[in-house]
């Protein structure tokens, strides 16, 4: 379905980003990966699906590096047809204890990076009159939790950015939508599981159960593979008039 298209997925050396990159690769899209840590393993996983794969290590908190990444993608792959703004970090603390530099980093990586990548991707998408921009928000783009001020602010912000991007391009072949996962057991969440296990003096398994029971009625983690399939739907022709939605996949979290 996506043969001949190129997808750039930020923060795709791990977790949800890698899951989405693989789902798009399954559909035949060429993939540009981005993120920290080992890039060779994720590159090999995507290449094994028989598509062209590239990597750029831009730090998404730095607009100049985002520009370099978009330039690399355009030069090596022709154009970015599908942009998945996924890179994100978390920090958990009450507002009065929240380190200002963590606030700035979360706003830069979880929100501003999507603005920069989007503004740089749009001109070529407009020329082709086709594009898909998918912002990985969170259920925290729809509702809040205590001790996550920066994350909740950034995720509500990215839902707003999604709507504006959709509206500004509503008469074109470019759509923009957000995905709002509940708990997904990635390294980002494993850190929160570990912290809970330590604080409550319980096992890792018990901490996972508690985390789910508190917020997610299905008592199940969503998987990167499931989120990948939703991204594939947004890229399909059937979704060409799905514009500006914030679609939760959260086991009923936001329905409460
Ligand atoms: P993860 O920690 O597994 O992956 C994060 C990715 O972002 C990694 O590839 C990492 O290298 C990259 N990254 C971090 N900082 C970066 C930077 N400055 N520049 C470039 N890349 C950077 O986390 P994940 O759970 O897969 O999260 C991915 C996205 O999904 C995030 O936006 C997160 O907020 C969102 N999300 C996650 C969950 C969850 O439960 N895991 C739920 C809702 C939303």
TrEMBL record:
Q: Which domain of life is it from?
A: Bacteria
Could you provide one GO biological process annotation from this protein's UniProt record? Answer: monocarboxylic acid metabolic process
PROSITE patterns, per this entry?
Answer: ADH_SHORT (PS00061)
Please provide, alphabetically and separated by semicolons, the GO molecular function terms listed in this UniProt record: 3-hydroxybutyrate dehydrogenase activity
Q: Which InterPro entries does its entry note?
A: 3-OHbutyrate_DH, NAD(P)-bd_dom_sf, Sc_DH/Rdtase_CS, SDR, SDR_fam
Under NCBIfam families, the record lists: PHB_DH, PRK12429.1
Q: Which family does it belong to?
A: Belongs to the short-chain dehydrogenases/reductases (SDR) family.
Protein name as annotated: 3-hydroxybutyrate dehydrogenase
High-level lineage: Bacteria, Pseudomonadati, Pseudomonadota, Betaproteobacteria, Burkholderiales
């Amino acid at each position: 379905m996506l043969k001949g298209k190129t997808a750039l997925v930020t923060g795709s050396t791990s977790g949800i980003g890698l899951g989405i990159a693989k789902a798009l690769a399954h559909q035949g899209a060429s993939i540009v990966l981005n993120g920290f840590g080992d890039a060779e393993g994720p590159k090999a996983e995507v290449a094994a699906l028989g598509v062209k794969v590239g990597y750029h290590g831009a730090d998404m908190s730095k607009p100049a590096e985002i520009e370099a990444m978009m330039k690399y993608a355009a030069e090596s792959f022709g154009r970015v047809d599908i942009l998945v703004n996924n890179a994100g970090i978390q920090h958990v603390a009450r507002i009065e204890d929240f380190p200002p530099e963590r606030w700035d980093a979360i706003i830069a990586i979880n929100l501003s990076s999507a603005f920069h990548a989007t503004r740089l991707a749009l001109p070529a998408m407009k020329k082709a009159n086709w594009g898909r921009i998918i912002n990985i928000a969170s259920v925290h783009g729809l509702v809040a939790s205590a001790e996550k001020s920066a994350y909740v602010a950034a995720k509500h912000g990215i839902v707003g950015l999604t709507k504006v991007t959709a509206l500004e391009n509503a008469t074109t072949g470019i759509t923009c939508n957000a995905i709002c996962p509940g708990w997904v057991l990635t390294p980002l969440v494993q850190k929160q599981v570990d912290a809970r296990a330590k604080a409550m003096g319980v096992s890792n398994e018990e901490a996972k159960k508690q985390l789910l029971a508190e917020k997610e009625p299905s008592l199940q983690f969503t998987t990167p593979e499931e989120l990948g399939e939703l991204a594939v739907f947004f890229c399909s022709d059937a979704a060409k008039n799905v514009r500006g939605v914030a679609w939760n996949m959260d086991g009923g979290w936001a329905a409460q």
